[in-house]
Specification:
Elongation Factor Tu (Ef-tu), domain 3, 7-stranded antiparallel β-sheet, EFTu-like_2, Rossmann fold, alpha+beta, membrane, Alpha-Beta Plaits, P-loop_NTPase
Amino acid sequence: MQRWTQQLGAVSTSRVLACFRASTLLHHHHHHQQMRHHVTLTAPTPRQSRLRAIDAARAVGLAGRPTLRALSSNAAGAQDHSPKPTTHEPAAATLPPQAITPKDLDPARFDMAKYPPRLVRNFSIVAHIDHGKSTLADRLLEVTGTIERNKDNKQVLDKLQVERERGITVKAQSVSMFYKNKGETYLINLIDTPGHVDFSYEVSRSLYACQGCILLVDAAQGIQAQTVANFMLAFDSNLSIVPVLNKIDLLHADAARVTKQMQSVFGTEPEEALRISAKTNLGIDQVLPAIIDRVPPPSGNPDAPPKVLLFDSWYDDFRGVVCLIAVVDGSLKVGEKITSVHSGLSYEILELGVVSPERVSTTELHTGQVGYLITGMRSTSEARIGDTLHLFQKPVEALPGFKPVKPMVFAGVFPMEQAEFDDLRKAIEKLTLNDASVTVHRESSVALGSGFRLGFHGMLHMDVFQQRLEQEYDANVIVTSPSVPFRAEMRDGEIKTIESPAEFPDTSFVKQFQEPVVIGTLVFPEEHLGAMIDLCQRSRGEQVDLSYLDETRVMLKYRLPLCEIVTDFFDAVKGVTSGFGSFDYDEPTFVPSKLVKLDIALNDVNCDALSVILHDSKAQEHAKSICERLAETISRQMFEVAIQGRIHSKVIARATVKALRKNVTAKCYGGDVSRKKKLLDKQKEGKKKMKMIGSVELSKESFLSVISKAR
Ligand SMILES: Nc1nc2c(ncn2[C@@H]2O[C@H](COP(=O)(O)OP(=O)(O)OP(=O)(O)O)[C@@H](O)[C@H]2O)c(=O)[nH]1
């Protein structure tokens, strides 16, 4: 690292950090490593260049990039394998000489006692993807001297690859900035939030550490589905909202129209909205003063016993568990002993500090401040998000904490070849080390062998995980079509959760079934209204609201069954609106539903792996499509093969394999073209490996044609 630093010499801090970031990605294969904090440097390998492009079409409105996480790659941490000395020297002096620090790093700046709550502001930026959140964050970091000004106005920070390609921020981060306003220096903490509501759990926990937020809207595009969803989260958290119109440099920007939209949807006064261009720096100077004026300081009590919110955590190879904390009341000092309300376990504070943009250790953190904390915690499972920490033997009332989220989308993940099972297991273990929200169960399938059943918050969460698996661990995986959890209210009153068709109960004991539904928000040009309503109706949607944002844009709200949107709804929205529509949805709730289990039998033998749970009204069509697809891919055997779709034992669809014919290419399933191709190549290798269902031989390809995409 030293060598690189020297070579880079005068290059800006952020560029150096970007190099760290790039190298981080390449190292995942070998290290148990939190991706944000790995700084070992090596030259890029060809693997990086081989990594494939992502099918942008699958992520409707999900282009763009996040920023803050790259900033927290801790240059100092990699050098320093032991806990920092707990001296009272200024923080900067304790950093090793190789550490990357802003040129003007001023030790006095990090004397945290200088920032009482009235001089602290904690805020985040919420925006629809691509509206310029990362660019604005970069500008604010430059204005405050936290990073150097980047002459080309290009976004210099490298990112987790999947984040770059998908254009989403996955994990929350925070960065502290120091800003002079009217003769006083403020400590301003920008807390980054993931942009997508799939991660609303992370959005809300980060918002919890804030008192205000910037609601950033692209002045050309106007309000989009995610703007609405994120606004609701901020509104529910009682945050002061600073409306900001970005991209006013664009020729087709229409600030007046978008201000009107914001007034009608969010009730913000037109004169409240700042008009800026994060790209050209226009109006950037107004932003922090507006934050200082309009966002209230944190309201904690400096004299009360310390009460601390733990709102994020990650694992760092060198330092162990690093927690992001917001000090609600009182102060913390290095060397003190703290206790977790959740677990009752106590720890010594080994290191405290702020992220600005590297971790800078300080001896104290005071009321209202946001920073990091290192204790002797061994695993992130001890650092429970939403936990309250207090001084040892000085208990405080716990903060509300966060609801643990239940997984809402499940998918089977299998190695392409059984020999790769162990590698897959290790890769999944590593990834879940830093994303504890993914649930993992072993699963085995007749056709696909041993694998895992993983549970995710939502579709995007699943896609991101799958891509990280493939990109960072080079894992060749087969991902089955996503499914959602259902419930059965039994006659004896018990509520059973059904996470897979195998758990579908005997219907004679069931009073009613329930399925998860969401309220989806769709924003699109009005000429697509008819097609969009059609799409929603086909997806068993119920209209909740229809309103006009202005003369040309419609906002539609539909109650939609989650199982109808987990497969290709995003694609469909994109298709129907020629790419101009955006879609987002809120947390699912369970409602009564008429569910059935569809079995597929080959010459009278049920093939478990092909069973699905679905709505009664969809069973016929689905059964027919599966039977036909199987008939196309099952090669001729010595005898006729009868394929049947059955509910209980009633046959609702059938197809027959009669004559010998060439194996046709499997129907396309989700994913981008290169992934598909890779999969097809792999399948060719695996074709010889037939499975027996009763007396019928079934190839992996046949399974995939049905399992990889169920409808
Ligand atoms: N013309 C113009 N382009 C801008 C402006 N701000 C950002 N952009 C561009 O808009 C695109 C998206 O900006 P990002 O900052 O990456 O968007 P984002 O909201 O952070 O995206 P996510 O992190 O994925 O949510 C980039 O190509 C930026 O260069 C602006 O003020 N004017």
